[in-house]
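Researcher: Please generate the 3D structure of the following complex. Treat every line as part of one assembly.
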Amino acid sequence: MSIYIDPAVAASLRGYEMPEKLGFGTVMAPVMFRAVCQDGCWSRGELIPYAPLSLDPAAKVLHYAQSCFEGMKAYRTRDGGISLFRPERNAARMAHSAERLCMPPVPESLFMDGVRTVTAYCANLVPANSGESLYLRPFLMGTQADLAVSASTSYEFYVIASPSEAYHSGNMRLWVEREDSRAAIGGTGDAKVGGNYAASLLSIARLKQRGYDQSLWLNAGNRQSVDELSGMNFFAVIDAELHTPALNGSILEGITRESLIELARDLGYQVRECAIDIDELLRRVADGSCEEAFACGTAAIISPISVLGDGGENYQLASAPGPVAERLRQALLDIQEGRTEDRFGWMQPVEVISLD
Amino acid sequence: MSIYIDPAVAASLRGYEMPEKLGFGTVMAPVMFRAVCQDGCWSRGELIPYAPLSLDPAAKVLHYAQSCFEGMKAYRTRDGGISLFRPERNAARMAHSAERLCMPPVPESLFMDGVRTVTAYCANLVPANSGESLYLRPFLMGTQADLAVSASTSYEFYVIASPSEAYHSGNMRLWVEREDSRAAIGGTGDAKVGGNYAASLLSIARLKQRGYDQSLWLNAGNRQSVDELSGMNFFAVIDAELHTPALNGSILEGITRESLIELARDLGYQVRECAIDIDELLRRVADGSCEEAFACGTAAIISPISVLGDGGENYQLASAPGPVAERLRQALLDIQEGRTEDRFGWMQPVEVISLD
Ligand SMILES: Cc1ncc(COP(=O)(O)O)c(C=O)c1O
Ligand SMILES: Cc1ncc(COP(=O)(O)O)c(C=O)c1O
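Model: Done. Output below.
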C-alpha cells in the first residue's frame, strides 16, 4: 500500500529549527507517521505534521492503559548515510506487546513503512556526533470511546521522532528494590506496555531522594533473582564471564541485550543467561569476584554501574566503567555508526528523501 | 475556589437528546469537569462541553500509563432528588491511586466539586428506574510531552458522566485464572490504575471463547489465594458465613465491598475478611458447604456467580442467585435509592442546577 504524504509535511520540515540543546526524547521532530485500525482493518499510513492528537475523553487508552510502544534509533553512519539498527526486531517485539494487551499487531510492513518514512524525511535531523541519533518512538493505542473493561475496537499507530544527544547516564548507582514490584509472573513484564513503567515511577522517585539513579528490580515471583532496570537489561561480569538474567517471562527481551550476547560471544567471552540471585551477586561484589556490572538498552547502549545499594549497605563495583563494558560498547557503536563491518547484518540503510 | 461554568454548557445540555438504549458506560453526557495541575499547582475547576481532548503525541499517559480513575454513581432517590453514594471514599481512593503512580493527588474539595458539579448540571440525565444511574468517571493523567521515564510535571483531571442502565451481568460463570496475573505483590493492585486493567484484557478474551464471563484472579504472590475479579471484589457464603479476601495490598479496596461488610454485619451475618484458598473454595463448592458466591462493585452492586471453571472442571454453585446476595443487594439499593433510612450516613444529596 502506498504511503500518503501530507502536502504540509514539506513546509513543516523546512520551517523547523533544531534547538541547540537536544537532551534525550525531549525535542520532537516536526512530522509523524500515522495509521488507524478499525475492527481489524488497517488504513494506509500517512506522514503528517507533528500536532496534538484528538482523543475522546472516554478513549480506552486513557482509562485502561491499552497501549504499547517501541524505542529505537536511526544512526548517521560514517559514509554520511542513515541506518536503522535491527528494526525488524522492534517490529516483532511490538507485535508481541500488542497481543499481550489484546490489540491488533501492527503489520511488520506498516511498522517498517512508519520508521523508514519518518527517518527518510527527517534525515537532516539525525545529529552527526558519535552517540547522537534520531530516537524513534512507534506506539499503538486503543481509542474506542467506551468505559467497558474490554479491548478497543479502534486503534491508532504513530511513529514520532526525537533528535537526541548521547544518553549519558554516567556511572549509575542502583537501588535493589525489595519492596515494590514492576511486573508480576504471568503479568506484562515481557511486553513493552505503559503499565510496567507507571508501576516503576514511585520506586524511582523514592530512590532519587536517597541519592540513587535507578531501581534494580527483582523477580516478582521469588523476589530474590535479578530481573532488570526500569528501562534497561542487566549484565554482571563474574570471574571474567558475562552473566545476564535469562528470559523468564517477566523481563523485556532487549534488542541491545540480544545483540551484546552475540557480539560478546563473537569476541570470545563466555556469556551465561541464567537466574542471578541478588544476595549471591552482592556477595560477589563484596568479595571482588564481580568486578563489573552494567545495564544496556537502546538509549544508552551500555551504562556502567558503580554501586548497588541494598538496605543500609552500598556495594561498590571495583571497576566502573569496566573494561568489558567499554569494549562491548565501542564494538556495538562501531557497527551502528558504520566504522566497522556489519558482519551480523544488523544495519538497514534508509534511502533519504530530499525535499527539493 | 469558584468553579468556572463555560457559557456553552447550557446550550450543550439543552441540545442533548438522550438515546433510547443506554447500555453501561457507552452514552456520554454532553458536559464534563476539568482542572489542570502544573508543577503541583491546581487551576480552578471548570465545567465545559464534552469534547475531544487535545494531547501531545509524547504525553506521558500515552506511553507510560500514568493515569488513574474512579467509578461511582449518582442515584435518583425516591423523593425525586439526586444523591451520591459515599463520594469521599472515591476521593480518598483516587488520592491513593495517584500517589502510587507519583501523581499529585486531586484535592478532596476539587474532586467533590467535580462530581457534584457534573451531577448538578446533568440532573435531567439521571435515569429514574431502579438500578439505573448516572455513572461518573473521574480520571487523572500525566500530560507532559517528554519521553523520559519519569513522572509528568503537568496533569489533567476530568469528570465525565454516562447515563446508564442497570448493569445486568446475570449469573456469572467465572474462570479461575492460573496462568496470567493481574497485579504483582508490591505492584499496583490496590490502586485503580490503567495498567491493571490492560493486563487483564487477554485473560478476559480467552475465557469468553471458552464460554465464561469473567476471570477470578489469584494472588500473584502465592498463586493460590483468591484476589478478585477484573473489576469487582469477591464474596463466598460458606457455612452461612460471609468470606471475602482481606485487603492484602494486591486487591482494590472496593467501596461496595466495604459497605456490604458493614451492612451484612448490621443484618446479623458473620463476615470474615481472610485469605481464601482457591482449592479449598472449590472443594467447598463441590461438597455444598459453599452454596453461594457473588462479586460486588459500583456498576453491578452484586452479581451472583453460578459456576467456577478450573482446568477441565466446572464447579456449580448450588444457589445462584443466592438468598444472601439477593438480600444484601436489595438492602444496599434501598439505601442508595432512598427507600430506607440512610442509617450509615452514606448518601450525599446534590443540589440540582436548573438551567432556566
Ligand atoms: C524495561 C526495559 N528493559 C530493557 C530495555 C532494553 O531494550 P532494548 O535494548 O531493546 O532497548 C528497555 C527499553 O529500552 C526497557 O524498557
Ligand atoms: C479491580 C476492581 N476491584 C473491585 C472494584 C469494586 O470497587 P467499588 O465497589 O468501589 O466499585 C472495582 C471497581 O469497580 C475494580 O475495578
